[in-house]
Amino acid sequence: GAVVSQHPSWVICKSGTSVKIECRSLDFQATTMFWYRQFPKQSLMLMATSNEGSKATYEQGVEKDKFLINHASLTLSTLTVTSAHPEDSSFYICSARDETDTQYFGPGTRLTVL
Amino acid sequence: DQQVKQNSPSLSVQEGRISILNCDYTNSMFDYFLWYKKYPAEGPTFLISISSIKDKNEDGRFTVFLNKSAKHLSLHIVPSQPGDSAVYFCAASNPVKIIFGKGTRLHILP
Questions:
Q1: Residue A41, number of CB atoms within 10 A of its CB
Q2: pLDDT tens figures, B39-67
Q3: Which of B96, B98, B104 to mutate to test the interface with A (most CBs of A within 10 A)?
Q4: Taking a C-beta distance cutoff of 8 angstroms, is the pair A106, A30 a contact?
Q5: How far is the C-alpha of A61 from the C-alpha of B69, rounded, in Å?
Q6: pLDDT of amino acid A22
């Protein structure tokens, strides 16, 4: 089946620094990728929809200047958390949609901001 | 306002019996429905899906039923196995968005 990878799987950073998370579709091309954040005991929260070659569409309440998304190719999307703060600590998950409209999720990246 | 609801936060089922997880949605514009399984500290993994043009899809031990008039879908797992213990997310989607329910934690009892 289709595989989506994320890198890094976990990261610890100091407050004020920026962190980049990569999401790759390994064996299929994904014109659309999604970025989610999971809060404890809650469902995944969609942050933004990333379309290859165009600007990401952000969900209401998500700061686009803080969470920079780039979808430079059909197999790679990146999420950069700029000037990270402890409240940004969370589990970030990406997904990629293939030509059959099936979504495949990455394994997630756990971000801890000290 | 929750567009996708999983009203049972947890469910316990005896090993070997049938597990039935339920999900309700409110928006009739959803045309594709998915179930994901999630272990702690891991990303959700896709389990099974169903298009709105169907009312049933089966894959091994997993069957998803869709009742469009009731805006309800369910996931049946039979027979239930210990490895099925996890959180199951229901999701509803259209071409531009996917909305998840809050999940149901399934415990398979020995």
A1: 10
A2: 776 667 778 889 899 999 999 999 999 99
A3: B98
A4: no
A5: 32
A6: 96
